[in-house]
């Protein structure tokens, strides 16, 4: 099987382009999923404080015995913890049984609370202290990102946003790229592929390449230069989602999938979502 692609972040750190997401998984499910993923070959795992399953990730990492420098572990600062980012990170590190995380993200801008700039300043300090290797954000729109850069002079290495064939966020993806910010897709399969896997173009490509619809969509993310973290707790799917390095989609096929964009957002709107939700 071809080697998995690696993305170089603007701070020089390297990140696998394909990782495992563990949103909405219990501690037990997470432990099993991460163990299976590491066995298959994944080296990147994405969790968050609010998922309440960092303990499961930590247990799986410890049991697997994969050298720490081969792993890329992401977790996130929840909205209520934007006042105390260091405490939030220390709590996460304890649950993950790690001395540092590879990527620490502000989970939502939560503009009504208006603490994301001060939280970002603290993340910059946490990186300087070595508790985090790279820092970034989730669900930030262009004005939020511009404000971070204007007020601190430090651009996030990465912006993790809802992105799938039905919500392609091309303007935001392009803006990120112009500012050397990597774009990472959450809900990359549109939460189970509803409205995506049954599209004729996806079905035709699956048949052409002898792949599943999920594999076609994951390959689409990779070929668009996106970092992608499909979530699964099913061992066969975890393996299947990783078996996407032996083919590539052609430009006209990427264009055909791009026509599925209808602006369908499945998650909250970052301009209004916050602590009061």
From TrEMBL:
GO terms for cellular component: cytoplasm. The active site is at 51 (proton donor). SUPFAM superfamilies: NAD(P)-linked oxidoreductase (SSF51430). Residues 18-192, 201-260 form the NADP-dependent oxidoreductase domain. Substrate binds at residue 107. It catalyses: hydroxyacetone + NADP(+) = methylglyoxal + NADPH + H(+). Its main location: cytoplasm. This is 2,5-didehydrogluconate reductase DkgA.
């Amino acid at each position: 099987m071809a080697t998995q692609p690696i993305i170089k972040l603007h701070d020089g750190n390297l990140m696998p382009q394909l990782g495992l997401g563990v949103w909405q998984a219990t501690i037990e499910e997470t432990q099993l999923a991460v163990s299976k993923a590491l066995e298959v070959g994944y080296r990147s795992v994405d969790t968050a404080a609010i998922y309440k399953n960092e303990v499961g990730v930590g247990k799986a990492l410890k049991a697997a015995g994969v050298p720490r420098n081969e792993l890329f572990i992401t977790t996130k600062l929840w909205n209520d913890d934007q006042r105390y980012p260091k405490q939030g990170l220390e709590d996460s590190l304890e649950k993950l049984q790690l001395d540092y995380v590879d990527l620490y993200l502000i989970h939502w801008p939560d503009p009504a609370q208006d603490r994301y700039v001060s939280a970002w300043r603290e993340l910059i300090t946490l990186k300087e202290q070595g508790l985090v290797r790279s820092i970034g954000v989730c669900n930030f729109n262009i004005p939020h990102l511009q404000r971070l850069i204007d007020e601190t002079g430090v651009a996030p290495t990465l912006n993790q946003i809802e992105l799938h064939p039905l919500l392609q966020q091309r303007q935001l993806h392009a803006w990120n790229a112009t500012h050397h910010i990597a774009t990472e897709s959450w809900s990359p399969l549109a939460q189970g592929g509803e409205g995506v896997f049954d599209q004729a173009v996806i079905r035709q490509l699956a048949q052409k390449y002898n792949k599943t619809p999920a594999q076609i969509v994951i390959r689409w993310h990779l070929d668009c230069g996106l970092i992608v973290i499909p979530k699964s707790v099913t061992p066969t799917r975890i393996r299947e989602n990783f078996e996407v390095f032996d083919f590539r989609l052609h430009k006209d096929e990427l264009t055909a999938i791009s026509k599925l964009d209808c602006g369908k957002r499945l998650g909250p709107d970052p301009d209004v979502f916050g602590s009061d939700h």
